[in-house]
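Practice problem: predict the structure.
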Amino acid sequence: MERIFRGVLKHRKIVVAVFCVLTAICVALIPQVGIDADMSDYLPPSAKSSQDLTAMKEVYGNDITNARVYVTGISQVDASSFADTLKSEGDVVSVTWLGDEVDLAKPLEVQDSDTIDEWYDGDGYLFQMVLSDTVDQTEIDHIRSEAQALPGAGTVAMDGSAVSNASNMASLNVDMAKIMTIAVITVFLIVMLSTTSYLHPVVMLLTIGVAIALNMGTNIFRGTISSITELVASVLQLAVSMDYSIVLLTNFGRAREKTDDQFEAMVMAMNKSFSVILSSAAVTFFGFLSLATMQFLIGQDMGIALAKGIVCSFLSITLLMPCILYGMRNVVEKTTHKPFIKSFRRMANFCHKGAVPALAIAIVIAVPALLASQSVGFTYSESSNLSPTSQVKTDGDIINGAFGESQTWAIMVPEGQWSEEEALVDELKALPTTKSVLSYTTVAGDALPHELASESVVKQLINGGYSRIVLTSNASDEGEESFALVEKVRSLISSHYGDDYHLAGNTVSYYDIRSVTTSDQTTVKLASVIAIGIVLLIMFKSLSIPITLLLAIEVSIWINEAVPYFMGDSVNFVAFLVIDAVQLGAAVDYSIIYTEEYLARRKRMGKAEASLSAIEVTAQPIITSSSILIVACLGIYLVASSPMIQQVGLLIARGALISVILIFFVLPLMFKLFDGFIRHTSLKLGFYDEHKDQGAASAAGAPACAATADDKGDSHRLQSATEQE
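Answer:
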């Protein structure tokens, strides 16, 4: 590896040129990557609702209501004109309003009041639409402006999954710009405080910026990524991989103390850093990749993107960053400053003294935290992912206040079995949540051959050997009652048609998302723990060290995940699933940095001295890296408009803080307590045998410390300083 690093540094101009070309290509490809904000698109193909939705689109196209418009203060004539205007819009597939349900030539007072109340509340008219998958915020704003331009128009409100998705996509770039700005400022300030040159944070940001561009550009090979991945992948890549560059800088600084030759110092730093960076990158890579084991395909989407980002960061930091640092060595020298934080000895002593109480607290709360983390309530719908202050949320509350909550589901059953269909329609009408049922038998009657019926009616309700039933219910998007309704409707349909039917609707998709993700939580936990455990096993050649590290980190994850339960909050299911892999991957990075230093010192010191010294030495890189992750993710929480993205940021920030506390307070004590266990279950550790030396010193009639002064110089200096403290 040293020969490779010498070659890289010697031909640094070629290395930089290659990275520049690749970065330019990837930056050009980034706008070509598709973004998908619809979570139902990530249901596995095996899910019933996914299969049903695919079949529905093949037969009828995209023809399920996904938007509502409510306009007050307009006349019936203007409402009819507005309906025609909507039908002429390019992204509008179909429109339904009062004029499609009743005969407007007759006075409304003499017609069915229940039907009228579904579309007109005395103040305004409701229009239900099917919008295309390509509709964006520009088209939504245009429809809103058309409604506001109607004579006498007052309140104009729009809601629905299509409106929510368009709003989320519109806010994506704004949110991403805010988040990355906070992250960049955070990195610059924290790194500047922890390094010795004002240019160090610039070099680090430049290097990881290249890695982020490479990762985002190579998403083109996947075609489309989710809006969640687009929003959080870059900032997580920046925050999680920052510790790789910190390790390189730290080792370069130590190498400079041994030689004035910066070339040799950089080669020494690259050589020493490589194994630590590779180890950290490997565990983070497999931690993120474990998300791909989820049945819900958003896990695969995020897992691949995040894992690929770690590879890009690893290559950029191990190859590009040394070339930039060495190439700018003269400028870096001119911008050096004294360390702002010179020593972490006081902190090491504080952690050492507080270790026993911290371990006792961790033991006491571990099991309750685990049980609480398994009892957290989840949200699944797109409406729950809307900010309380967003226009879509406000408009939804207005429409629900006027007409109540509404869900429209489409049912496809075999054509021609009219008696079965009529019986099913009667049972659906009898449900207490039903607002209306539309089918061929309700429109034309089962005695009328569809050849003689209106062509428009036939096209909407009979096609491809199927008859379609449209069920509208006054149910919410999600919740136990809504999910129970899905089960009830499926049971009713199955009693008439067996498995030969299709049911599609938002709540139906959310029901299946809940079913799929319930098992995904366990799958992701096991996959991430097993994958990272194997990497740690190979890395340290030890059975006990992976168990020790993972036990400490898992407790921190349980505590983090238990907080929403004790606070009575519900969490978006995606945020909760992601935290396992992200917190585990990030925390293992920190624990590896500590473990490497502890094991190196344990070869020449006693366990107590080694643990104390390791805390002091690793405090700077761990605190620097974790502070960046914590502050950057708090930035996500503060500026993101999506509650789900906010929850991701808060969970990761809180999880990183809890993990660091346990790593500094609990992990060193665990190493001391398990010292014998680790010694006998690991290969070639070469631990210093303090008991043997103490016995030899006692036999010679001299203090034990004097007999080992040469071997333990570092230890005695630390011990002396500690006593003075």
